[in-house]
C-alpha cells in the first residue's frame, strides 16, 4: 500500500470562512450557533429555532460573500452546499500549492466529496412552485442543483481534475467516509492527489422540523443559542444543525516529497462498521463505534496505547454521547491502552460549530490533523456538569497543549453507519 499524507486544508464553517479563522476561533472558545427565527416565518412553530450558520461578510473578516468566490453564473448554477465546497477546495489547493497543469497531473488528481442532504431548499421551493403553477415552474437547473455528486462534479470541472470522481452520502458519516475512501484511492494507486471532504447547507424550517419531530434537536436554548450544543454535559438535550464545508488535500507520500509540499499529518488507518440496530439511535454500549475504532487501529497497525487524542462525534444527544463515551473507554482502557480514564484525551467540537451533518466528518478530520500539527487539543465548550461515567479528559471549556502524535476522529450516522480515521504525525 502507498502511504497517504495531508498537504492542504480548507474550510467554510459557522466560526468563519477559512480554516485559520475557524481554528483560531475554535481554540479561543467561540461559538457559531445563533437564533434563526427571523430567517423564515415557519420557524416560529418549530421547538428548535437555532442553527450554526456561516456568517455573512467579506472574506478578510472571515465572512461569506459568494461574489468573492464565484461568478454570478456559477452562483446561479450551484446549490449552496456546492458553493461552500468550491470555496473550501480553492483554499485547500492554495494551501497545498497544487495546481496541476499537464494532462498526466490532472488525470492523477481526483475528487471525493459528498453531502448528507444536499440542496434541500431547492427541493422544497420547486415542489411548492410545481404544486401551484405546474410544469413550467420547474427550473432546468433543478436536477443538476439537486444531485449530491454535483459538488464533486463542479470541483472537477472548475479545476480540470479527471481522476476519480466520487460522492459518498452516508448521513452524518459522509465527510469521514469521503476522506477515508479518497485515501484508499491513493493507497491503491488510482490517484496521486485527492480533494476530499464534505459539505452541507439545509437550514430550512422543514429540515429542522423533521429533525425536531424525530426528537433529535436541542430545544431549550432558543434564547441562549451559544449554550445549546453541550457534548458530554449532563444537561445536553440534542444536536444543533450546522452548515458549511471542509476539504483536505490528500497526497501520495513520494509525490508530496518530490514537489516539496508541507505535510500536516499522515493517514494511517480507516475503519468502518454498521450497527444493524436502529434507524437513529446507536446501541447503548457503543458496539458499532467500538468496531470502527478497532478496525482503524488494526489498519494503522497501532495499539490503543498509541492514541493521544480522539475527536469525538459526540453531537450532544443523551444516548449518542453516552454510547460513544462507553466505546472509547472500552477501546482505550486495559493492558494495551491506558490505565486510567483520566489519561484519555477526547473532545467534541460540535459545541462550537454545531453538527454540519454531511460536512461534520470532514471538518472534524481537519481538526484532528491540526491537533497533531500544533500539539493542541481543541476544547469541548459548554461542558459544565459531568455525570460520573464521563470521567475522561474532555478539555472542558479550554484548549489544552498536549503532545499529540496519533489522533482518531469518529463519525456516526442515522442508519447505524460508523467511520473512524486514524491520523499520525509524519515521520
Automatic annotation (TrEMBL):
One MF term in the entry's GO annotations: 3-oxoacyl-[acyl-carrier-protein] synthase activity
Gene3D superfamilies in the cross-refs: 3.40.47.10
Keyword terms of this UniProt record: Acyltransferase, Fatty acid biosynthesis, Fatty acid metabolism, Lipid biosynthesis, Lipid metabolism, Phosphopantetheine, Phosphoprotein, Transferase
GO annotation terms (biological process): fatty acid biosynthetic process
Active-site residue numbers: 172
Domain Ketosynthase family 3 (KS3): 1-425
GO CC aspect terms: mitochondrion
Pathway info: Lipid metabolism; fatty acid biosynthesis
PANTHER family: 3-OXOACYL-[ACYL-CARRIER-PROTEIN] SYNTHASE, MITOCHONDRIAL, POLYKETIDE SYNTHASE-RELATED
Family of the protein in this entry: Belongs to the thiolase-like superfamily. Beta-ketoacyl-ACP synthases family.
Protein name listed in UniProt: 3-oxoacyl-[acyl-carrier-protein] synthase
Highest classification ranks of the organism: Eukaryota, Fungi, Dikarya, Ascomycota, Pezizomycotina
